[in-house]
Amino acid sequence: MAIRPAPLTGIRVLDLTRVLAGPWCTQNLADLGAEVIKIERPGSGDDTRGWGPPYVKDQNGHDTTEAAYYASANRNKLSVALDIASEQGAGLIRELARQCDILVENFKVGGLRKYGLDYESIKEINPALIYCSITGFGQTGPYAGRPGYDFMIQGMGGLMSITGERDDLPGGGPQKAGVAVADLMTGMYSTVGILAALHERTRSGLGQYIDMALLDCQVAMLANQNLNYMTTGVAPKRAGNAHQNLVPYQVFTAADGHLIVAVGNDSQFRAYSRVIGRPGLAEDVRFMTNSNRVINREVLVPMLVEAMKTQARDYWLAELEKAGVPAGPINTMDQVYQDPQVQSRGMQISLPHGSAGQAPVGASPLRLSGSPVNYRHAAPLLGEHTEQVLRERLGLSEAEIQQLVGRR
After folding, report:
1. For labelling alongside 134, which of 162, 275, 324, 402 has CA 20 to 30 A away?
2. Where does the pLDDT of residue 1 fall: very low under 50, low under 70, confident under 90, or very high at 90 and above?
3. Domain limits, the chain
4. Higher per-residue confidence, 242 vs 120
5. Which CATH number is 12-221+345-407 given?
6. Does residue 198 contact residue 206 with C-beta atoms inside 8 Å?
7. Distance (Å) of CA 63 to CA 176, 187, 259, 356
């Protein structure tokens, strides 16, 4: 099959975002081939540039000034350092917006209006622009003016009420996820919304405004837990490593470590029961169906716990795989990247970097056969592409560029 250009080749994005939710969205667009121009504050740039250690290493193994956090969400972008608060800087950004298909920003509600960079102002000069605003709480509602950060959103949006060990067990209590899932899911939902608006524009020729909120996305992503509540009126509680709707679907302790068993249907439970030497469990009316296993989990699970202690982790993993029962280890990050499946799928790659030479990055999970994602370079240095963009996109002369750069 002939390989075609990446799907968003020819699409230009103006990125006025920082930290994670917005940059995660625009990195998706960049991976898909869009030209993403990231506007950063002169001198300091995106807040996450300073969120280290760790830092990207150079070819001699020494720290660069580039935080790993920043590098995780900004590959394939062009960094332009402009002062949005200055009349000249805001004017240049407006000119870039005139040439772009998409603008993504995560300023506080109404924060860009004073610079003439709000949607209503930009729409006047570029009615085809798709303009996506990402905030903690959205553009409307009683909390619209509040700042919103992932950690607090995980709490407010219900995730921490269902994450963590059971309250009646040691270590019980609210727990956040190990990564900023509210930010990441908002970035993903924003990507979906932008691509939908881009497709709709092919019919109407017009852009539109997209209002994305971390709290909305956090609530929406609770998925089955939302419906567990809505259909019963009872708020789900923390269940540790167990599942509210499936049994057994949890972590078990083996003779020498831990593993996950994820039984998703009754035939898998019959196979699991045979593997652990307790085939009679699958014939017991209390456990024959998942519904009954959920109702009687307090009786069933202790029996499974005792059975699982009798063999080593790798023994169980091998036997369960042979029986077609979903199971897996609990890997540390180094084990993740040593895993042959992860290596086979190419989930770690290396890209050119302005100060490191080459820098490791986590690959995109998107696999398009005819128009694959396009990797060009790692996260840019602050202002690395300022002169290039001002020259090629705005037609500034060398004297004008040097005057501007010299004032930063």
Report:
1. 162
2. low
3. 12-221+345-407, 249-332
4. 120
5. 3.40.50.10540
6. no
7. 30, 29, 36, 9
